[in-house]
Amino acid sequence: MIRTGEVAWYATGRFYLATDQSLVDVGYFVHLQGIGGSLFVDDAIGEGSAHFTFAAQPFTATSFANGALKLGVDAVGGFGVYLQREPCGTFDDPTSFAKGERIATFERVSVVVGTTVGSAVTLNAFSARLVSSAPFAFHGKTYDFAELLPHGITQWGTASPDPIAPPPAGYTTVVPFVGSAIRVG
């Protein structure tokens, strides 16, 4: 059982800015507290071997500045958590992270504010409530996010200051990030 205020997960992924100016973030979980066994095929940490992935619904962001601070406000939105029994995630195809069994859906409870200082890293924080979940079996045990994180999470994220090359079509900018979440009570 995860107690309130304890680390719930560590996740890593990428933000994708599409040609229509919508954003999406996808990735995988490096750690999910309360779930036993390796989260990766052959313990090889990476998107292609990750059993647990996430994918956000497309959203938009508004940018503005306050002196040297660059701020971005993301609209309220949701994201799904997926169990990929046969991992197939690849950052070359962001839709691959939404494959498999959808085992949980979270909804951000307010807008997300991201802050960049100069050309340094971008930081953000958000809370998300669990809005649905389904029991799932993994390594011989049954789990349910309704038991693990019944009230949701608060996550702090750090994004790279340096965009990387986008996949071949549909995206103009890609930025890697990492997030750490705690269980809310």
Strand order, largest beta sheet: 1-2-3-6-7-9-12-13
> What string gives the helices and strands in order?
EEEEEEEEEEEHEE
Strand content: over 45%
CA(first)-CA(last) distance: 12 Å
| Total helical elements | 1
Determine the fraction of residues in helical runs and give it as a percent range: under 10%
Which structural class do the helices and strands define? mainly beta
Task: Describe the structure in your own words.
It contains 1 helix and 13 strands; from the N terminus they run βββββββββββαββ. The two termini are 12 Å apart. β8 (112-117) and β9 form a beta hairpin. Helix content is 2%, strand content 52%. The longest helix is centred in the C-terminal third of the chain and has 4 residues, at 145-148. The chain is mostly beta strands and 185 residues long. The strands form 2 sheets. It has an 8-stranded antiparallel β-barrel with strand order 1-2-3-6-7-9-12-13. The chain has a two-stranded antiparallel sheet with strand order 10-11.
Structure in a nutshell:
The chain is mainly beta and 185 residues long. Helix content is 2%, strand content 52%.
